[in-house]
TrEMBL record:
This is VOC family protein. It comes from the Bacteria. Residues 10-124, 138-250 form the VOC domain. InterPro entries: Anthracycline_SecMetBiosynth, Glyas_Bleomycin-R_OHBP_Dase, Glyas_Fos-R_dOase_dom, VOC_core.
Length: 254
């Protein structure tokens, strides 16, 4: 993506909610070379930050509620979380969790767009978000999979002020034209039970090697490594606990 640091409206963080935190630590450390650090404070509930060098790049967390699915969640930076949830509701979205303070790090909220895709909003204070993008092991693209592309375009351009490229094949989201993500329309190839969702893509040095590493680590390759027209080489993978994510070849940002 063409963003290299958290900016208002842009993706700033990716967070995995998993049923087996220790297994997830092992899997992603082997796959991406992450160095996980679990917050020792009891109030943090096992929240674990993954680092590359000194840079925070993602988080791994236990499931905090019985109904919470195993999934990767994408957070978008906002200037004011309370204002943002009001904008979400006014634009036809649903607020799933009202703004909440996280120590002195920031303030976050959880919402769903009109098509049901869940996302988070983050008002950074001492912690603005990821300290590295577009490098091997770091977040580099986010993709919305939805059955309601027109509703999604109206919603996100209204709430976050995004630009959206005019493309029947693969519309791309951007901030002032700096693209950071795309949109896929879920057709009949997607099972009915698969909900609309946001999918994070992490950069890797070699997509084919990452696919092999995923299966070696007990995960699944959902979309084999492929090189789409005018795009980077990509694959869609699933970790051993069931969370889906994408990878793309570093240096081939859209």
């Amino acid at each position: 993506m063409k963003l290299h640091e958290p900016v208002p409206g842009g993706p700033c963080w990716a967070e995995l909610g998993t049923s087996d935190l220790e297994a997830a630590r092992r899997f992603y450390t082997a796959l991406f070379g992450w160095r996980p650090e679990t917050d020792s404070r009891q109030q943090a509930g096992g929240y674990t930050i993954a680092r590359l060098g000194d840079a925070a790049v993602a988080a791994l967390t236990p499931l905090y509620q019985p109904a919470q699915p195993v999934a990767w969640n994408v957070s978008f930076a906002v200037r004011d979380a309370d204002t943002a949830v009001r904008q979400v509701a006014a634009a036809g979205g649903t607020v799933l969790q009202e703004p909440t303070d996280v120590f002195d790090s920031g303030r976050f909220a959880v919402a769903a767009d009109p098509g049901g895709a869940v996302f988070q909003m983050w008002q950074g204070r001492s912690f603005p978000g990821a300290g590295l993008f577009n490098a091997p092991g770091a977040l580099g693209w986010v993709e919305l999979l939805t059955r309601e592309p027109d509703l999604a375009a109206d919603f996100y351009t209204t709430v976050f002020g995004w630009t959206v490229s005019a493309s029947d094949r693969y519309p791309q989201w951007g901030i002032a034209g700096a693209d950071f993500g795309g949109m896929v329309t879920m057709d009949d190839k997607f099972p009915h039970e698969v909900p609309a969702h946001w999918l994070p893509y992490f950069a890797v040095e070699d997509v084919d090697t990452a696919a092999v590493g995923t299966t070696d680590g007990g995960g699944t390759v959902l979309m084999e490594p492929t090189s789409p027209p005018d795009g980077p080489r990509i694959a869609v993978l699933r970790d051993p606990q069931g969370a889906m994510f994408g990878v793309y070849r570093a240096g081939d940002e859209r």
